[in-house]
Amino acid sequence: MNKILLLQLIILCSSRVFLTTGRPLAADGNPVPAPAVHREVYADGRMFDISHRVTKELPSWDSKDGLGQFLFSLASIKNGSVVNASEMKMSVHTGTHVDAPSHMFDNYSDAGFDADTLDLEVLNGPALLVDVPRDKNITAEVMMALNIPKGVRRVLFRTLNTDRQLMWKKEFDSSYAGFMKDGAKWLVENTDIKLVGLDYLSVAAYVEALDTHLEFLASREIILVEGLKLDNIQPGLYDLHCLPIRLLGADGSPTRCILIK
Ligand SMILES: *[C@@H]1O[C@H](CO)[C@@H](O)[C@H](O)[C@H]1NC(C)=O
Ligand SMILES: *[C@@H]1O[C@H](CO)[C@@H](O)[C@H](O)[C@H]1NC(C)=O
Ligand SMILES: *[C@@H]1O[C@H](CO)[C@@H](O)[C@H](O)[C@H]1NC(C)=O
Ligand SMILES: *[C@@H]1O[C@H](CO)[C@@H](O)[C@H](O)[C@H]1NC(C)=O
Known about the structure:
Blueprint: H1 3-19, E1 41-42, E2 47-49, E3 71-75, E4 85-88, E5 97-99, H2 106-110, H3 120-123, E6 124-131, H4 140-146, E7 154-158, H5 160-163, H6 181-190, E8 195-198, H7 209-217, E9 223-226, E10 236-244, E11 252-260
Parallel strand pairs: 6-7, 7-8, 8-9
Antiparallel strand pairs: 1-2, 2-11, 3-4, 5-9, 5-11, 6-10, 10-11
Helix pairs in contact: 4-6, 6-7
Bound molecules: 2-acetamido-2-deoxy-beta-D-glucopyranose (NAG) (4 copies).
The site of one 2-acetamido-2-deoxy-beta-D-glucopyranose has 2 residues, from loops.
């Protein structure tokens, strides 16, 4: 091949590779996109994603194996379809999620108090992130000592679960920290809190999980947000936004939750 032609070819190729995007080209001639970035914090450090990414490794209630496969392909570009399209299958109590009154009460279930009826006004508004003592579950005594002012309607309780990184371990750990029944009862009777958030799969400690949920959900006024990701955030006052999926008839729903400083 003529040397000048070869040189021109090299310049042509290298300019396509390096001058357009600085990235290599795929077989179809388009640049290979840079790998996507998965973020926890947005808006120059003012907006925090406090929901857990749904992965196969998420812990799942009473299971050693975690969530496992939850996405299934219906159509795939690699297989010659024009689109990628998937379906999913998982518990409505997977990862970061809310509980509806129908989760615990058959009469509320019959009356239709499902995930779609949860009050968006409660799920969105000013919220306090507090650290609770690491050496106890959340009892009435602990609640009293936290001294949460009247008028505070949304509280995210950060516990030993965050330090232990329990939501990042696929094996379910029943020794997680949470509310004891008397702690829930004290909250219901003595505070204005209508949204209770916690950093493991249940707001209620395992030993009293059922009774504690009953205390919280009996009035249908309190929304429970479970499986929050509260790592690396300063305690204090934020704007909370939680938007569960409108699952008709469901006793819970996965939700995205964010905090804005
Ligand atoms: C792609 O096609 C192969 C062979 O028919 C099949 O085994 C595989 O399940 C398909 N994958 C998807 C994602 O549809
Ligand atoms: C598209 O489908 C393929 C399977 O054929 C899968 O490997 C890939 O992750 C899918 N991409 C998205 C964004 O779903
Ligand atoms: C719903 O049932 C529970 C017990 O299962 C009972 O304590 C509660 O009073 C009932 N609520 C209403 C509104 O009927
Ligand atoms: C909280 O209760 C669980 C049982 O539900 C127990 O295993 C755990 O040790 C308790 N946590 C603390 C900090 O006392």
